[in-house]
Amino acid sequence: MKTYLKRSILTSLAIMSVLNFTSCSEFLEEEVYTQYDPDSFLQDQEGVDALLTGVYASTEISGGDARNIYYALSEFPTDVSFETDGGFASQVKPIQEFNLNPSIPFISGAYSKFYAAIARANNVLLVTSGLQGIDADVVEKINAEARFLRAYSYYILHNFFGTTPIIEIPAGATIDEIETIGKETPRPTEADYRAYVEADLIFAATTLDPGTLSSRANKGSAYALLTKFYLSNREWQKAADAAAEVLKLDYELYNDYTTLFSIQGENNKEYIFRTECKVGSNQVNQYMPHAFPPRFRVQPNWVNFAAQFRTYTAFYETFEEQDERRKLFLTEYIPDNRTEPVQLVRDNNGNPLNNARSFKYTPDPDAQGVNHGNDIPVIRLADIILARAEALNEVNNGPTQEAIDLINRVRNRAKASPVTLNQFATMDALNDFILAERARELYTEGILRREDLIRHDKYISRAVERGFPAQPFHVLYPIPQDQLDSNPNLAQNPGY
């Protein structure tokens, strides 16, 4: 059994090396030192956690990864926010201005990150397939978590690149065989890709318990991701049904939107899946140092970066004045070298400044420099409520009272004016409202706005309206050049 574990660890390293497409052609055989017998190691929760830690670590998006993936690749090319100034500006400029090429580091970094996570998830499945004398239910739940995280990784890859190679390593594969798989696997069809990810998520949803820890995969997070997966694929009835499964579980909207994303709001029952951040750990929230405007009066333990994360005035003004979500924007401030406030929304002549700042992640009083401890939601209940409303609108080919009631659950919490069925004469009218409502509810959160605009066929047109040379093929990022160089069967996305 120890020999099997050694082979699995070496296999995992080989897979990650191949999927990161390094130039190495040989692998060093290293001695594996361990005091654990895998037969007993996985019989308690500590063992399960240890086995899965690497997968969770690979999939979590925080710190610099969040800056690159959630903002540079996901929100800055949209109509919600953008970035200027600092050294970061030159790196993000070609992305938010749609001057894309296959050698942009953020694009390559995202691709490699999630294939490393897939490699680790596959290794968990390889290890568990060789375990003996372990309770079958325990093994099934380990496999379900690993498959959820693998599906989550493929989901994000698909969001950015379309279909990408499905890498599966057969039991007992040699290092040479693993290397061949990584260097020769072509892109699958859209149908095969969807079937593969769907199978992982259905297995996770039907195997895992509901759970109460939103930083770990459970039934609720599996059905929630399944909802988003179906929604992104425009499988409306399946999306509505998966969302209904989430709504049956013990989640609830947090009563105060203005503190939901603060340290005070942590451990709420709205977060379905989250990255748990803690100052002093490897998982931290580094959003706020980019959002503080110049010479903002920060605490001594905070940092204010030169990079500026700014919000479009047109988006800010979509909020009603009484909307609680509007309160999480900084619209004016007094710099530490002035006594008069600086306006961030419009100048004295009424011209838009496009400079309001999202303070959604209320600064952590105990931050250490750039690192704040605010948890980062990956999926939360409001997202799924609005997803079901959208899916029902499509299924019924027009507005229904149930869809309106779902939207009002979200708007009522924000103290925004409730909407009525007679306000929307057509399916398109309600879809446009839902798209705008999702932006108001979910700004500054993850990959959401970009995928929403793409699903509603407005990503390119909105970019063109902002003056950028966006083309229809820009709904996908280019496959990174280093991946193409390593795998001759990996076709580039059209247009690049």
UniProtKB/TrEMBL annotation:
Q: Which domain of life is it from?
A: Bacteria
Q: Does the keyword Disulfide bond apply?
A: no
The keyword Signal belongs to this UniProt entry's keyword annotation? yes
Main localisation: membrane
Q: Which residues form the RagB/SusD domain?
A: 331-496
**Localization annotation:** Cell outer membrane
Q: Which UniProt keywords apply?
A: Cell outer membrane, Membrane, Signal
State the similarity comment.
Answer: Belongs to the SusD family.
Q: What is this protein called?
A: RagB/SusD family nutrient uptake outer membrane protein
Q: Which organism is it from?
A: Leeuwenhoekiella parthenopeia
